[in-house]
Amino acid sequence: MKTQIVVVGGGAGGLELVRRLGAKLGREDFDVILLERNRTHIWKPLLHEVAAGSLDANLDEVGYRSHGHRWRYRYFYGSLEGIDREARQVIVAPVPDEDGTELIGRHRIRYDYLVIAIGAISNDFGTPGAKQFCLFLDDRDQADRFRQRLLNHCLRVSRSLSENPNADAKVEIAIVGGGATGVELAAELYNAAAGLRHYGLEVFDESRLKVTLIEAGPRILPALPEKLAQAAHEELEALGVRVLTGTAIVEVTAEAMQTKGGETIPADLKVWAAGVRAPEILKEIAGLETTRGNQLVVRPTLQTTRDDRIFAIGDCCFFVPEGEQKPVPPRAQAAHQMAVTAYCNILALIGNRPLEAFVYRDKGSLVSLSRYSTVGSLMGNLIGGRMAIEGRLARMVYLSLYRLHLIGIHGWLKGMTLIVIGHVNRVVRPRLKLH
Hints:
The chain is an alpha/beta fold. It is built from 11 helices and 27 strands. It folds into 3 domains: 3-120 and 278-350, FAD/NAD(P)-binding domain, CATH 3.50.50; 130-274, 3-Layer(bba) Sandwich (FAD/NAD(P)-binding domain), CATH 3.50.50.60; 364-428, no CATH class. Helices cover 33% and strands 24% of the residues. A 6-stranded mixed beta sheet has the order 5-2-1-11-23-22.
């Protein structure tokens, strides 16, 4: 019987892991399986560009079936429902068709080694109305839904201005969360609005956009040094974004957001990008140790604390490095680094060799303000502090992070080819995706 390795979740970490395992182990004596609820992969840090229409996800997405054929792993379409640790089986939830009928029934997948890499979702902290009236940017479908609604509201305002040029019609957008996602989306929206006049909405431009960014903490971008966060704050305000800090949202309605201070912020589109948590399915799953945020607690080897055959990587795992006070942050770079360690340790278990401890190397943080600016800090783990970068250099480094992701999931040859194709597409394809 083949040794079966099951990876649940095809995000940045999971997809790189199955590529490495499939390429190394092949299919003769091993069976590497990816269980994923989506049919295609898109790098999560790009979802704000998909939402604004600045990026056509159809050009950048990765089909799991073709990728699995290329790298010798099997892709199963479905969602995790549970884990039977005694039988060493993953329980896969029933898969519904578009009309709600059952397409594939509940079933089980045997595993010898299991890796949970299902990422994280937005945390609305139980705020009344948030789940009902807010849009989230956790996956491709949600980003597409936001883009479609954004275009509809832009069309409405454009039509109103055509009938009455003196009308004060605007598209009002409120974004909760001053982290990287919220800040990047706010800037990207102005980039997209500036381009709409070239695609049929001649009377619409960025002046018809009213974006409010709301952060409960004392400043935006808490992961960056205060000087760089302030630079981003000023850049956003120069674009026209109203930035509110120290402002908590206590209720969301169909028409507005209500702050703790009593202000009502009207909004046509409401986006929640404040904080993340692991999916609810992981809450006390199979008796494994979890945190209040549903993350799986792991040892330095990235094995779960109560089962040596089950690993967790990426945003869904909780690991505090030795000598540190805080856990490894939920970043794409951490997921990639964990994928490498999990890969080495699974091979070590198979070969009865000692396992290695995961060492997080903070390569810094970068936040893109679309074409306007990029701010961030690099070399986060170097003695002597951080190197702050801004402007063109920062933009180049920001783009290089995505290129490293492409190489991580495709290998050097195809990764470099896709990078070249991406440059060509930016020249020959439309600047905005309007459908």
